DNA sequence: TAGATTGTTAATCGATTAACAATC
DNA sequence: TAGATTGTTAATCGATTAACAATC
């Protein structure tokens, strides 16, 4: 899909071969690099919360399951962030990676569904720690409208378009039953959201310019289980 | 960086050339293959629920973001599951992949945390659809003990070891605050759980024989956002 | 048949790994 | 210094992709 196309474009055909790994010429990271950098960021953010000041590629490797050589390689492509014999400064590495991923700022998200899952999401730090703010919660149940959910009040779906516009919302999170997901995805698309984070099991149909990410804990479990069983 | 040598080796190696891709000789799947097969399974399971009888590699590709050629390649390594001009039978592909992943049976899981997230997990089909059954829920809050959460009643932590033994539980899910996660992970390890699914942000320390998977929705969002922003 | 889609080949690209000099 | 860890090279392996004959 849209991701597939990105991959082919990533390092465009016949570019100058002397450009090391990732010079400033290539304006877009490869899918793999972007995914791994995001992963490092997660661990670094938490390590910082725990008061850790430096971290080695070996430690990062243990938490991310990414080979330590590759971590050093990924990072050294953008600068010499580490100190030999010491490791990487957690704070400064967080800023560097945020800069590389261009996600230094705050991003507003709209959440659909004020059930258990929606409340869990709105009340957690998981998104907040990475600069995502739940600025609006919607639910189709009229009884829930006005409820306080995390930092926001539950709004009526009819207000969606207005809020997306006003709050400059790019990401929509679907924490609703599978049966309702497609209908609400359509509304999110219609309102102008570009990224949909789907916590239902529905296989969503969206236009090509919209990216869907479906959460799949069971898939991860199956995968882990396979390696346990063999 | 051009490796002309690779080309010469491609067919030059002295190995039996007729062993297709993945004969029965290789007893363990590579990480990548196992991950992708799990992914296909998720989509197939949902497609089946929706009444779909056949699916093409192209359709699977759209939902999984895996290249369609690679899907055909992954599958053809284990047998000729598809029908040219038609696609794959959803039902039979589900069984085949389950067989390959050796996850055809039921697996019991223990859930820690009877808050919003715990209740959302216990009440959803996400795990159930893939053969995972929440057989026990634990919480440290005495007030919650005895509560009905999804299909199970909330138990006291002291019963953990007993239940893990009796119910043959291999997987533990942590849906608890970050501050409590390490302590409970220790208890799960002590009780004999081999796979921990961590929904907190804690960086868990566990012995090498235990696998930790930390859920990271924000990481996935950062990643998606990068490609939207660039 | 005619259209669609698999199974497979061949080529290229990116990931992985070991090893080690540089250096904090 | 001595120990640790980065930054980097070189080699191999697996993933990705286009293309197309086979065949339903």
UniProtKB/TrEMBL annotation, chains A, B:
GO CC annotations on file: cytoplasm
UniProt keyword terms in alphabetical order: Cytoplasm, DNA-binding, NAD, Repressor, Transcription, Transcription regulation
Subcellular location: Cytoplasm
Compositionally biased tracts (Gly residues): 11-23
Secretion signal span: none
DNA-binding segment(s): 39-78
GO molecular function: DNA binding; DNA-binding transcription factor activity
Record InterPro entries: CoA-bd (IPR003781), NAD(P)-bd_dom_sf (IPR036291), Rex_DNA-bd_C_dom (IPR009718), Tscrpt_rep_Rex (IPR022876), WH-like_DNA-bd_sf (IPR036388), WH_DNA-bd_sf (IPR036390)
Principal place of residence: cytoplasm
Region feature Disordered, mapped onto this chain: 1-23
Residues reported to bind NAD(+): 113-118
Domain CoA-binding positions: 105-203
Record flagged with keyword Calcium: no
UniProt cross-references to Pfam families, sorted A to Z: CoA_binding, Put_DNA-bind_N
HAMAP family: Rex
Function of the protein: Modulates transcription in response to changes in cellular NADH/NAD(+) redox state.
Quaternary structure, from the entry: Homodimer.
Family according to the record: Belongs to the transcriptional regulatory Rex family.
Entry protein name: Redox-sensing transcriptional repressor Rex
Gene, per the UniProt record: rex
